[in-house]
Amino acid sequence: ATDTIKLVKEKLHEKDGSVVNLMTLIFAGRGLEDSKTIEHYGVKHGNTIHVVYRLPGGN
Q1: Which of 17, 39, 55, 56 is deepest in the core (most CB within 10 A)?
Q2: Can you tell me the distance from the alpha carbon of 59 to that of 9, in angstroms, rounded to the nearest whole number?
Q3: What CA–CA distance (Å, rounded) separates 45 from 32?
Q4: Alpha-carbon distance 33 to 38, whole Å?
């Protein structure tokens, strides 16, 4: 629960090669900031965090 959002993104990168800088994590309709922790957002075991990817070159 003390993992930062940035660390979660890095773990996803290790698992599937996703580009960290193109990821946005969303929980309860809010974009999660890299410097905050999972605990800060009240994420509990079993909750769903959505991953949205920006397309390179897209706006």
Answers
A1: 39
A2: 21
A3: 17
A4: 10
How does pLDDT run across 21-46, given as a tens digit for each residue?
Answer: 999 999 999 999 999 999 999 999 99
3-state SS string for the chain? CCCEHHHHHHHHHHHHCCCHHHEEEEECCEECCCCCECHHHCCCCCCCCEEEECCCCCC
- Amino acid letter, residue 25: L
Please, which pLDDT band fits residue 10 given cuts at 50, 70 and 90?
very high
Domains of the chain: 5-53 (3.10.20.90)
